[in-house]
Amino acid sequence: MRIWPTRSRSILALLILTPLVGAARDWSDLLNHNPFYTAPVAPPPPEPAPQLELRGVVKEKGTYLLNVYDVAAKRSWWMQVGAMDEELLARGYDPKREVATLERQGKQLSVTLRTSSIRSTGMIAQAPRPRAAGVNQLVASAPVLAPSSRPMGEVQRMEAIAEEIRLRREQRKRQAG
């Protein structure tokens, strides 16, 4: 008994499979053009290094003198606010923000006062101590490192040495007295 004729089955199969083929094309297109994928964005170009630095400021008789350093030429000079040299005009200085306004080749530049950086060496400065007679000069003048910069075993060893020195001094006092 035939429920569907052969031709009807072919038409039915075609009707069912046609949308699937179209959907398959759409899916393959998604592989090439992912809607969630963003193209890599090139990083913005780095800002050019400042050509001028403000290295110092002095206020003398109500006027500011600025120490300007040219990085490219590797030279510095002092100039008064409102004065102009060969290529640079010092327009003004804001002491609250520590910013100088300079003009070079028609371009206005705002230059911030450069701060110095001080790095610790880990050494503790010591005032000279009076030296007892007979004490080895090398031991008395040896630099002492900050305790945090020494390993824990080193700290314990130094404490043991200090205790030994204290005991020997007491022993000498008893022998002398």
Highlighted features:
32% helix; alpha+beta; flat; three-stranded antiparallel beta sheet; single chain; 177 residues
Please list the strands of the largest sheet in the order they lie side by side.
1-2-3
Rounded Rg:
41 Å
Kindly state the number of beta strands: 6
Please give the alpha-carbon distance between the first and last residues.
133 Å
Residue share in β-strands? 15-25%
The best one-word shape is flat
Q: What's the SSE pattern?
A: HEEEEEEHH
The stretches of 5 or more residues where confidence is low (pLDDT under 50) are: none
Give the number of helices.
3
Structural class: alpha+beta
* Biggest sheet layout: 3 strands, antiparallel
Q: How much helical structure, as a percent, in the residues? A: 25-40%
Mean of the pLDDT scores?
77
